[in-house]
Amino acid sequence: MSEETGSAKGGFKDLKKIFGGGQSDLRQFGILFSLIAIIVLFQYLTNGLTLSSGNLINLVSQYSYILILAIGMVMVIIAGHIDLSVGSVAAFAGIVVATSMDSWHFPWPLAILFGLVVGVLIGAWQGWWVAYVGVPAFIVTLAGMLIFRGGNQVIGNANTVPVPAGFTTIGAGYLPEVGPSTGYNNLTLLLGLVIAVAVAVKEWRARRVQQHMGSARAPLWVSVLKVVLQDAVVIYATMAFAGGRTGTSFPVSGIILGVLVLFYSFVTRNSIFGRHIYAVGGNRLAAELSGVNSRRVNFLVIMNMSILASLAGMIFVARSVASGPQDGTGWELDAIAAVFIGGAAVSGGIGTVTGSIIGGLVMGVLNNGLQLLGVGSDRVQIIKGLVLLVAVGVDVWNKSQGRPSITGFLMRGRNAAARSSGETTTSPASQSSDITLNQEKVI
What pLDDT score was predicted for residue 219? Predict the structure, then answer.
């Protein structure tokens, strides 16, 4: 039978299980708490504008494409590579799709599929050089950054190409108004209700699994408090998004982002391919000796990055209502910053989709808050650079002191599942000596 820890002496340790387990401490959640602190700070400095309905809607709409890039980039970095071409690939796909609708008269749904095919072809081209020719991804994608930036300007003649109204839905659209008049967007309310129920069901299923395995469980009140806190955030956000000005609600681009986060979180945490990515990034030679096809893994992660870059480019073009020659400039830096702030390791083998989303939100909220305060773009760049340096520096220092980082927390569920099924995880993040393992990695 399972046991529930509930002694008075263990009360504080039980309370910490709200954040992931009895052995965790607050340093483990530095990046997550930094995000919360930044939100609270700007909420105060902007007199409540940061968490207003209009600003939250704008925040999701404005930064969804960067977060989509971060999803692909974290897989590339986990595998031990870097992709400098994502901004140019996004711009190239955007101009091709815009031109296909404006000059070639493609229907916009077909144009979206065409844009994804363009991403597949670009990704296959770059992945082939990396995986099968052996050229370092840094060089291949640096070349790609130049090639596809030039391609964008050749196809568009350095001009702006407009897109039709139907296409703009994926970047500037919102959940439509349906049902009776409630003063809120009903579909957004329904979406929030589904998420709130899912949070409770997930916790309930986790306790059921722990009971079935005979492992120790946190007291019931801890699980209840955890669900209450999470659902409180969900309900607050739901009411904010649903109560925006007439004609707005939760952005369609946010729906696309949410689906991608769920899908890629499952792939990286629960699929064989996801484990192979961590294995190749942690120690390629050891992974190959274990039967992992490292070439196929490298090819697929590079190709996947270009597909997501194409999607991000289309979403941006849809939001901007046109494709221009300056689209995608600097996007690769924002995506890479989000991944490293989210806890990924430069040497590969460590990182999570969830951590990258948190890192992207840190940069997005910071940028948004500074804009609300009227800070100039020059100082915004300086502050963002310092935040990136400090965030990664603190995370590295914590790990060098033997303290788990936010990545260790986010991967706990994956590692626990692997141990319970008698498997060993291939990710160095699952080991307490992750720094040592990365230092001993054979290049």
Answer: 83
Residue 289 one-letter amino acid: L
CA dist list (Å): 322 to 129, 253, 329: 32, 16, 15
- The answer to whether the beta carbons of residues 341 and 406 sit under 8 Å apart is no
- Cα-to-chain-centroid distance, residue 349: 17
Average pLDDT of the chain is 84
Q: What share of the chain is helix, strand, coil (3-state, %, to 5)?
A: 70, 0, 25
- Distance between CA 105 and CA 98 in Å, rounded? 10
Kindly report the number of other CB atoms within 10 A of residue 216's CB atom. 11
Segment 6-59, tens digit of pLDDT = 444 455 555 555 555 433 334 345 677 888 889 999 999 999 999 999 999 999
Question: In Å, how far are 24, 204, 218, 353 from 224, measured between CA atoms?
Answer: 19, 10, 10, 26
Neighbours of 103 (CB within 10 A): 10
Give CA separation, 413 vs 261, 288, 326, 403, in Å: 16, 26, 41, 18
Task: Kindly report each contact of residues 257-264 with a partner whose C-beta sits within 8 Å and lies 24 or more positions away, as own/partner.
Answer: 257/60, 257/64, 257/67, 257/68, 260/68, 260/71, 260/308, 261/71, 261/353, 261/354, 261/357, 264/71, 264/75, 264/353
Angle between the 86-102 and 53-78 helix axes, to the nearest 10 degrees? 120
Token reading at 341 = 């702030």
Answer for the pair 239, 52: CB distance below 8 angstroms, yes or no.
no
Asked whether residue 435 carries a pLDDT value surpassing 70, the answer given is no
| Nearest of 6, 8, 46 to residue 366 by alpha carbon | 46
Is the distance from CB of 73 to CB of 309 less than 8 angstroms?
A: no
CA angle in degrees (0–180, nearest 5) for 252-254-258: 120
**Distance from C-alpha of 41 to C-alpha of 362, rounded to nearest angstrom:** 12
CA distance 416 to 372: 42
Which structural domains are found in the chain, ordered by start?
26-173+252-439 (1.10.3470), 180-250 (no CATH)
Task: Write down the pLDDT at residue 378.
Answer: 86
Distance CA 308, CA 337 (A): 17
Residues whose CB falls within 8 Å of the CB of residue 242, separated by 6 or more in sequence, listed in order: 184, 185, 186, 188, 189, 192, 249, 250
Pair 406, 358: CB distance under 8 Å: yes
Q: Tokens 């597909």 map to which residue?
A: 307
**Residue 323: its H or E element:** strand 322-323
**Which of 138-142, 219-223, 422-426 holds the top average pLDDT?**
138-142
